[in-house]
Amino acid sequence: MRDRQTMLRSLTAHRALIRRTPALVLAALTAICTGAQAQLPLAQGSQLPGRTATQQASTGADWVYTVKEGEHLDGLAQELLATPFTGAQLLIHNRLPAHTVFAAGDTLRIPLSWLRQQPEPAKATAVTGNVRIISASDGRQRPLAEDTLIRVGDEILSRTGNATIELADGSTIRINPNSRLIFNKLTQYGKAGMVDTRLRLDHGGISTHVRPLERGGARFEVETPSAVAAVRGTAFSLQSHPGTTDLQVTEGVVAFGPAGKTRNIPAGFSASVDANRPGVVDIYRLPPAPEPNPLPPRLQALPAELSWNSNALHRIDIFEADSGRWIKSDEVHGSHYALNYLDNGRYTINIASLDTRGVAGLPANVMVDVDLTARPATLVAPEEGAGVNDDLPEFQWSYRGSNEVGRVEISETEDFGNLVATSEWAPDDTALPSRPLTPGQYYWRVVTEAGGNSVATTSPRPFVINGTLPPVHILSINYIDSQVRIFWEKTDTAGGYLLQLSEGPEFRNIVKEATVQDTTAALRLIPGRRYFVRLKALSEGPLASRWGPGRELFIE
């Protein structure tokens, strides 16, 4: 027993020592008492004599996997290997004995044909405007939304919009408006991130940023009707038009051309393929990147002027730095561009010169943070406590901040617990309420917004809608001797009526004026004279009233 414990302590010490030694892989002792073969020299890669039939059958390229802390053979086999390959076969392929124990940093060679392959969907990370997805599973066409998963066979149709797609390995694809992109293959090998991505750009344009691909079977390829572009880690743009395909490479190298006749196009160059000229790849040097003048890294006021050293035709592309959302794209003549109406956040701005073919050159990248703060507006009209006769009054204010939009809010109470009307958000400094206001007292204020998330609100201001009572119409007139009785229609909100009697239709010479509570009145007139009568409704509230039409009176 004592001898066995001594041997165990020796084995533990030996394992601790060799775990600190860099090597291809760690070989553990296969048994306590198996003699000299129990300790194989790691510096020699734990080589075993001869090769088995499984090893002989393994052909093609190997992929090298680096073991991580805590990983063991059974778990690696389950996660990496396809059926029917096993961990035991993996040890044999690497010439390792059974019961091998792994340490972090050790490496294993795995034949590509043994790796487990699985579909790995892409995901839409940003969508702007009208973009559709056609599902390969049911053929239905739906709007593309953020976080939508895109699977093998799905198609993206960008009409007036654009979208940013992220692949399983973190590579990104920006789809231009008026494009059609088909996802022919989205495969991941095991859990290590090695991918095989194959796309077809039927028409339109894309811009890609492909992460460096693992050696072995990793692949990223875009096919068009007239060309193919294959990369191993680069940034490029591709446009497909009837009969032609154009490429611009901004990082790395792209194998580009007709199928089977590609040429390596390095960064700083563009290339074009024309179906009418089989096998020909035209290569051009891209315009150099402009030199932008520095901007403050933090913009607290907009508009801000972006400028650069070149005075040619340029394209400006603005992206949200985090999501990759394509905010806007403009062509600019000259060397200046106004940054305006951007929400708070971080942006990447690309400035690229356009050549005589309209192709964008190498971009200059500008990173900027927009950090706007809204300030309360200054209320102009209606003034404090003012009476307004219009049921759709115009509200006026002035902004005190930068790049702000505002809207009016109207409430019957000072705490604005219940809004009765608002206006649309707009950069204007005047607005009408969203609906007519009935007579009464109200409070109004202006809410301003800057940067999409900074809001300021003015103090409330009271005002009164006077409104108008409808004109009073006389219904009938009865004559009895020298007396006239007049009847008129009732006004529901009236507290009484004002009657005027005049000798002329202009009502300049008033011979009688009286307040009447009822809807009828009797008048005694002088025979042979002509008179004119009219009425208007009265109210104790904030209501203006108008005279009804006059009627002629005459007693012979």
Automatic annotation (TrEMBL):
InterPro entries noted in UniProt: FecR, Ig-like_fold
Signal peptide interval: 1-38
Keywords noted in UniProt: Signal
Domain FecR protein per the UniProt entry, residue ranges: 160-254
Alphabetized Pfam families for the sequence: FecR
Keyword Signal (UniProt): yes
Superkingdom assignment: Bacteria
Keyword Cytoplasm: no
Name of the protein in question: FecR family protein
Organism in which the protein naturally occurs: Marinobacter zhejiangensis
